C-alpha cells in the first residue's frame, strides 16, 4: 500500500504587517521557500509532479495562480505545474491533504505543498472587490440568526464568532488575555532557545540584510496593557486585538512523496501523514469546527487524545483553542508549545504549512510520535491532520 511521507518542511520567518517582508512580492516569497525546500531535502525540482499552494486573497499580486508563478520565479523547470487553492485559513493545510492524496492514489510521486500570504501587500478582504460573495439564498437562510449581518456585504464575521464562542463556553476577558500573554511567552522562550532556527529559511530583503526571526512576538506585553485594549466586535465583548491572531506576511512549504519513492531517490522521510480529514459546522459561529474535526481524525486514526504528544490548534482568536481544550479534555501543556498565531502571526494562506513545519520541528526535537494539527476556517470549516514521526 502506498503511503504519504514528508521528507522536508521549511518556512520563512513570519513578518509583521509593514515589517521586514513587506517589500517582498508574494510570488518571490513563495519561490524562496521552494528553492530552500529542494536544497534542504535534496530532490531534483524536475521530479516534482505538482505544486499545490494555498492563498486566500487571490487578487492583485496573489492572482493568476501563485503556485505556477512561484515555480517559474524559483527557476524550476517549466515542466513543473502548480495550482492555487483557497480553503480560507486552512488553505495550505488542505494543500498538504491534496498532496498526500495524490501520492497515495498513484497520481503523483513527489508533490510540494504549501502556501503564502502577504497581508501587507494584498490586504485581507481585497478579493471581495465590488462583488458580493454571498447571494440571496445564503442571506435568507441565515437571516435573523444571531451574529449574521444579513445586510452587510460580508455578513459572516469571525470576530463576532469568537465573541459567541467566548459567551457559550463562559470565557472571561481575563482568561483570554492570560491565554494571549502565555502564547507570547512560549514563542519568546522558543525563539530565545533557537527552536525556530532550523525550520526558517532567512529571506534577503532590500537593505541587504536577511529577515530570519518571527517579528510578532511581544515581549513587553502584560495583562495590564492587554486590559486597556478595546473590544471591536462587541461593545460589551471580551475579544480584543491582543487575543486575536496578527496580520502577517509569510510562506511555508513541505515535500511529500511515498516511502518507496523516497528510498529509491535517496531521500529520508521525516514523518508520515497518518490521518487527514476535513469537516464543517456552524458558519455563523464559524470557529468551532476544529472540535468535530479532531474527533473525526482521532476516530479514523484509532487513537485517543492522550496518545497525541503535541497539538497545534490555530490561534485565530483565543476562544478557539480554549473551547477546543474544554471539549477534548486534552493536556494544556501539549497545546501550541512554541506559541501560536497570537504571538507568531497568521499569514492566512501560508499558516497551515507554517504550523505543520513548526509542529514537525517540535516532534523531531522531542521524539514525539504523534502530532495533531487543526485550524478553524472561514465558512465554519476545519482541517485536522495527524502526523507520525518516523
UniProtKB/TrEMBL annotation:
InterPro entries referenced in this protein's UniProt entry, alphabetically: Thiolase, Thiolase-like, Thiolase_C, Thiolase_CS, Thiolase_N
Species this protein is from: Plantactinospora siamensis
Gene Ontology terms, MF aspect: acetyl-CoA C-acyltransferase activity
Alphabetical UniProt keywords: Acyltransferase, Transferase
Pfam families found in the cross-reference section: Thiolase_C, Thiolase_N
Claim: Transferase is one of the keywords in the record: yes
UniProt protein name: Acetyl-CoA C-acyltransferase
CDD domains assigned to the protein according to its UniProt record, in alphabetical order: thiolase (cd00751)
